[in-house]
Amino acid sequence: MKLLSERLQLALRLLKEKKGIEISQTEMAKAAGSSDASVNYWMNDTNGISAKKARGLADLLEVDAYWLETGKGSPDRKETSVIGDIGEF
After folding, report:
1. Residue 56 phi, psi (nearest 5)
2. How many CA atoms lie within 13 A of 36 on its CB side?
3. Is 72 exposed, middle or buried (0-12, 13-18, 19+ CB in 10 A)?
4. CA distance 34 to 27
5. pLDDT digits (tens, 9 = 90+) for 47-80
6. Rounded to two decimals, what is the model's pTM?
7. Residue 1: its pLDDT value, please?
């Protein structure tokens, strides 16, 4: 998924399917340490998301932060590897 909005929509849908939880944009903003306006921008692909904000939001949405930020890997936290993406030492 190339668009941040698509990843956010998928994460929201997965959380609702798994736990029956619906998250508001205000809750997303609080988790990311951001504003409602920023969440609106993300949902409309007006702005990207920083790694720091993606980590907070990913915790709330129970998805992998690297996937949320970049679209690389999988939303499942167990399957995404940042090391694998940049090379092993």
Report:
1. -65, -40
2. 5
3. middle
4. 10
5. 999 999 999 999 999 999 999 999 999 999 864 4
6. 0.83
7. 77
Question: What is the rounded CA–CA span in Å between residue 47 and residue 84?
Answer: 27
The CA distance from 40 to 17, in Å, is 23
Q: 40 vs 81, which has greater pLDDT?
A: 40
Contact status, residue 68 vs residue 61, Cβ threshold 8 Å: yes
**Spatial CB neighbours of 60, under 8 Å, sequence gap ≥ 6:** 23, 27, 28, 31, 32
Structure tokens at 7: 């990843």
Q: 25-32 and 36-43 are packed helices; what angle lies between their axes, rounded to 10 degrees?
A: 110
Per the CB < 8 A criterion, the answer to whether 29 and 38 are in contact is yes
